[in-house]
Design goal:
Metallo-beta-lactamase, Chain A, eight-stranded mixed sheet, 27 strands, about 40% strand, single chain, seven-stranded mixed sheet
Length: about 350
């Protein structure tokens, strides 16, 4: 038997020749054979008893279950481990803001790269005179990505230079517009979601598309509800602050990622809806936590568009609105490329991954 820690999480690893398990929550019985290096000469029983049954989910299983459980052997060795966890809580998700609209979501044992802009500059149609964003710090690409999730087909959400650097075999889920972008780049597993449709990744995480931002007079891109199928935790994401009333039917969620500032172009209207829109999302979804996105980060902006954009709202404005309505939702202002853990509604920093 081997034990390893994962930050604040109680986690056990069993590197054995062959094994099976019997679930009698909050106790798991592991029947182990042919593992003398783990202290069992021929067969044995490992009993893990949890004071909190939810911690059963923290067991790491490096080998798949056999077709049927082994017969219960006469144990030569019995090891009992009791994990007391009255103070600690299971990690619901890890979140890392990668600047602008880009996020790494770790949920249900999966690593999801959301709207990534990670390399090169960000422009629209190569019109650098109109808009150009540059990263101040070049950072390595996140590794071991299980899924790429794209809300829109525009460059600030489906950034071609970044997507060209990613493995084309990584599954991609996106709006119809975003799916066209990655298909042109040669991605082999692409799922386009219409509003109301869902995709489930390895029976661990379900992604449901909801109406998001209007792009022009006829196109409405996607927002997403991302759900951990095991723990039941939920995250809602919409990058421009256009929240559909159907969210009322999806409440409650644990985390909302949405803009909390207003950006508008005179005579044309809002590009990003933040302050009142964020309040509306909180009232509809009753999240424990709201986290701003589309707020820049470790980035320099330039071009004509930046000189005419009008900004309003912000964190203090939203905090006042929440207080006035006695809403308990917390606001977290993330630091770029700093990972933080969401644990049953509480946020705990777990360091950076640069």
């Amino acid at each position: 038997m081997g034990r390893k820690g994962k930050g604040e999480r109680d986690s056990l690893s069993f590197w054995v020749g062959s094994w099976a398990e019997i679930w009698i929550e909050p106790t798991i019985v592991f029947l182990v054979r042919d593992s003398p290096r783990q202290g069992f000469s021929s067969s044995g029983v490992l009993v893990v008893k949890f004071n909190d049954s939810s911690l059963c989910n923290s067991i790491d299983r490096p080998f798949p279950l056999p077709p049927s459980p082994f017969p219960l052997p006469l144990p030569q060795d019995i090891v009992t481990i009791t994990i007391a966890n009255s103070k600690k809580r299971a990690v619901a998700m890890n979140l890392t803001w990668l600047d602008s609209n880009s996020w790494l979501i770790e949920m249900g044992g999966k690593r999801i790269l959301l709207d990534p802009w990670l390399v090169g500059d960000l422009t629209f149609g190569n019109l650098t005179w109109l808009f150009k964003a540059e990263k101040r710090t070049q950072r390595p690409m996140p590794e071991a990505i299980d899924l790429i999730l794209l809300s829109q087909g525009l460059e600030d959400h489906a950034h071609p230079p970044t997507l060209e650097q990613c493995d084309r075999h990584i599954p991609v889920v996106g709006s119809a517009n975003a799916a066209k972008v990655v298909e042109k780049l040669g991605y082999t597993q692409v799922t386009a979601l219409a509003h109301g449709e869902s995709f489930t990744l390895d029976n661990a995480v379900t992604i449901q598309a909801v109406p998001g931002s209007p792009i022009g007079p006829t196109l409405v891109e996607n927002g997403y509800l991302v759900s951990d199928r095991l723990q039941g935790t939920k995250l809602y994401y919409e990058p421009h602050g256009f929240h559909s009333p159907i969210l009322k039917d999806l409440a409650p969620v644990d985390v909302v990622i949405a803009p909390i500032v207003d950006l508008s172009i005179p005579l044309l209207g809002p590009v990003i809806k933040g302050s009142t829109s964020a309040l509306q999302a909180v009232e509809w979804l009753n999240p424990k936590l709201i986290i701003p996105t589309a707020a820049g980060g470790d980035v320099n902006f330039g071009g004509l568009l930046m000189s005419i954009l009008k900004e309003g709202g912000g964190i203090e404005n939203l905090r006042k609105l929440l207080a006035d309505r006695q809403l308990p939702t917390q606001i977290l202002e993330p630091e770029p490329w700093k990972t933080f853990a969401v644990e049953s509604g509480q946020v705990e920093g777990v360091g950076s991954r640069e």
